[in-house]
Amino acid sequence: MSDDREQMTGEAPERGEPGLFAAPPMAEQERMVEAILFASAEPLSAAQLAERLPPGCDATEALAHLRSRYSGRGVNLVRVGDAYAMRTAPDLGWLMQAERVETRKLSRAAIETLAIVAYHQPVTRAEIEEIRGVAVSRGTIDQLLELDWIRLGRRRMTPGRPVTFVVTEEFLDHFGLESARDLPGLKELREAGLLDSRPMPGQPGDDEGEGAATGQSELFED
Amino acid sequence: MSDDREQMTGEAPERGEPGLFAAPPMAEQERMVEAILFASAEPLSAAQLAERLPPGCDATEALAHLRSRYSGRGVNLVRVGDAYAMRTAPDLGWLMQAERVETRKLSRAAIETLAIVAYHQPVTRAEIEEIRGVAVSRGTIDQLLELDWIRLGRRRMTPGRPVTFVVTEEFLDHFGLESARDLPGLKELREAGLLDSRPMPGQPGDDEGEGAATGQSELFED
Amino acid sequence: MTDDWESRDDISARRAAEALIVDVDGYEGPLDLLLTLSRAQKVDLRRISVLQLAEQYLGFVEQARALRIELAADYLVMAAWLAYLKSRLLLPPEPGEEGPSGEELAAHLAWQLERLQAMREAAARLMGRDQKGRDFFARGQPEALAISRKTRFEVALIDLMRAYARLRTRDEFRPFAFDRSDIYPYEAALERLSTLVPGASDWTALQAYLPEGWRGAAKRKRSVIASTFAASLELAKQGSIELRQTESFAPLQLRRRQGRADE
User: Fold this and answer.
1) Could you read off the pLDDT of C186-243 as tens digits, one per residue?
2) Cβ-based neighbour number of residue C75 at 10 Å
3) pTM of the predicted model as reported, rounded to 2 decimal places
4) What is the CB neighbour count within 10 angstroms for residue A84?
5) What does the CA dihedral C223, C228, C230, C233 come to, rounded to 10 degrees?
6) Which residues in chain C have their CB less than 8 angstroms from residue A184's CB?
7) A 149-178 near C (Cβ less than 8 A)
8) Which of C76, C61, C42 is nearest to C1 (CA)?
9) Domains with residue ranges and CATH for chain B
10) Average pLDDT of B107-118?
11) Which helix (H) or strand (E) element contains residue C255?
């Protein structure tokens, strides 16, 4: 309230359009963006912020101010896709670890499916199956949808008009990516030594490729 | 990481206990407390914070620094009972339409019961009924318990050992109170004798009354 | 008050009076009704005339009776008590009488009303405060905290990239890579069996030739049986061992080829 008054006297009000007030001073806009981002349950784009600010505000500039204000702090303003969110500074992640309760591993099928969606989006179920070489169970897709890591994209304009899957902003957020394009390509993976196809020591399940394992047990059943 | 190194050279490490590092510099402690408080939706006490900080940290001092850093910002560090939390500045509430949670409208009986518990705590059901002049319906207490605004206090040491009700930290948090002592008008009500427990003249059964008076003074002792 | 109502022909007043009675359900008990009635006196509750209030209340109860409205028992209990209070206030106390005076009782009632009023105002002030979720807000996206409500799926970017790398390179590497730790290769079985055969002069079950460490886990056992069996076939083909089986599904037995040692 007091700031509203300040704005009225502190800055020259735009008298051009009657009934419109001048935008609040930038320091106040910054406060507003700070509060909105803090309270929001999801990252917000500059456009979404602008919608919620009084007319005449410059969300982008306020974001820039806020970003530098929080730079080096315990919490940072980060960009997530086209949106912005407050996040714990990466170097303090360990402070949050004590709270990590009941973590579960994602199934290999789910990880692979997720990876394929991320690298090939928009991608149809048939394409995922082609790349994986095995059928993708409904449960796997459902789990990823439930985790809000993938979502339905536009239907493919081919016979049958199959649905496609794309990754979500939540996915980018979780994996610390600004966009899916930031995922390293095959060449970079190779350079990083990730293309070595030998199983990682102590990596269970690597020799339990679904197809192979099934075949084996069938063949040598006691 | 860089701060760790800085700490090693910048401050005299405590060599007394082998294997222990010196506490991080205060600026770093402040960052840590900032990160933890931002990450939590619930208020955290200084003790809870200290548990999560490296040994040797002074959570209370870090909190004081942080509080002044955030004073006047869009987000503030507030005190809730024995705990601390980050909350948006109340003057910006109008920006948060999207986040507004529609709470069930409380009945007049529930609101009055809540006020009675807050101002008279610890208070028995019989005392609530005496003040309101009507029976307290089961649903009223249940609703307040469900909202986590009241909880059971210690049993009154009078015949029948009736249970008592007190307000919770969530209550303080919800109504932006630092402590139950900050309830509006509390001092005036007490001075006017309106928080006393006076038995009806000539009525013998005032054993509860004595208990009530004791409980009160315990809670609101300055 | 009662007289007022009856003397006046004013319809609206009459209606208001009836509304008051019919709305009896709207009151939260006798104390609530007394508090409402006391407002008519338009004075500080501390200076309220309890006698006047008692008369108002008794008038109200009488009216309810006249209109044949059933009042809850607690309204009648209060009426009886107020009638008693009224008599105590009006009559001088008898000498040597026990119990509290009318004034004491009246003061207590006034105090009860004042306390109820105070609590109502406190409640209103409380609800008028800034409230969480309405006027101020907690972090909308709290990060993983001690709340054990959710199962977090632990997947790092590296897992994703590894999975993708595995998928994309499976085809080009699979035919050549021997990446299974639970497979006992045929070549190894052949080499092992060849070295053991010279000592096998008696019929011995094939299982006896399985290497240590491969006899337990079913998966490994299957693999080693298969490769050892294949190796035995090869050695039989070469003529260095003999194989026999007493009946279908009976254990396979082998021994060094007898003739050869004699030659």
Assistant:
1) 888 888 888 888 887 888 888 888 887 777 777 778 888 888 888 888 888 888 888 8
2) 19
3) 0.56
4) 24
5) -160
6) 161
7) 174-177
8) C61
9) 2-98 (1.10.10.10), 108-220 (1.10.10.10)
10) 94
11) strand C253-256
